[in-house]
Amino acid sequence: MRTKPWKIAVDNNPNPNDIYITPRLAKELMDTDPTVVVLDFPFNESVQNINGQKYISRVDNRFNRLYKDAHIPNSVKACVFDFEERDTGNIKDAEKIKEFLLSKGINCDTHLIVYSDLVIVAAYAAFIAYWVGVKQVRIIDGGIQCWNDHNYPLTRVESITEPVNNFGTNVPARPEILLLRPEDVYVEQMLDSNYLCASIRSWDEFIGKETGYSFVTYKGEPAHSVFTRASDKSTDIAFLTNDKEEILVDPAILEEWASWGVTPSKHVSFHCGGGYRAAAVYFITLQLGWKHTCVYQGGSGQWNKYHLNNPKEYPIQKGDPLTQSSVLIDYI
Asked: How much is the pLDDT for 330?
């Protein structure tokens, strides 16, 4: 049993569930595997929350990059907007995402490698492709920063892939890994006694001290949520990464999860505000061998909207459930 934090990224011979890989392995796959397609999701061109985007870009110049200025050779520019509805923040219909992937030369048998400047952006995009049905999806651990740290080349030359016509499977091929809306969570809570709705938001977000987002007005969590420490703020999973955005799993964090009931034997959905952080944590558990996890993409933001329309069916939780100081709010 491990007692110290360890980097989860695989450096050779990845199996299908090894999502996070080192830059060295990513480069090897790019050089040797003809089925590889690489998608670049530059942070400054991939995030809908413009205020959050401007703030992060201002405090950390790593996130100022644009595709036209620097990217990994042969990588194709993409944007989260290609996968997500601009007005609602919901994941697009699987058929629409399939058409986008086909336009980038990606089908179910493509070996897809994704990277960004921020791990949660790469993970969110990779998760959606994985949900739709791409069989092999990888994320470059540490993104373009760690690629650059290896002195691997960058380019300004735009890459374009040839479209393909046949995706090769019905979509979504993995419907079980996504709970899209609050009503999906409600059904799980009613029917599955082994189900846990696990928030990976910061502690202050979880107890209802702050919303974490400029576009969310109501504080609190979906009722009966448990705390899964991962985030320091709404733009990171700082308790599961180092300062280079590499995934770092700490046994002490997993022990804390277990104190809330979040273990491999449970059916767990992870949520944040809109799915980015939750997707990154989902892939960590997948790589650790957990078999019963999924993402609740609507998160606290969409639950908030449902609560305003139907507070009794979608109550809000505030406070710390472990100290019995939490309350359920079934009114507006």
From this structure: 74
pLDDT of residue 45: 73
- Any bridge partners for residue 329, and if so which? 316
Structure tokens at 191: 């029917």
Three-class DSSP category at 200: coil
CA distance 211 to 220: 7
Q: What is the full DSSP assignment across 74-114? A: TEEE--GGGTB-TTT-PBPPHHHHHHHHHHTT--TT-EEEE
Contact in structure between 118 and 43 (CB atoms under 8 Å): yes
Q: Does the bond joining 251 to the residue before it have cis omega, within 30 degrees of 0?
A: no
Q: How does residue 89 score in pLDDT terms, banded at 50, 70 and 90?
A: confident
Q: Looking at the domain covering 6-173, what would its CATH class be?
A: alpha beta
Q: 144 near 117, Cβ under 8 Å? A: yes
Q: Which pLDDT score is estimated for 331?
A: 66
Q: Are the CB atoms for 40 and 76 separated by under 8 Å?
A: yes
Annotated domain spans of the chain: 6-173, 176-329
Question: Per CATH, the architecture of 176-329 is what?
Answer: 3-Layer(aba) Sandwich (3.40)
Cα–Cα dist 270/237, whole Å: 13
Residues 6+ away with beta carbon under 8 Å from 160:
76
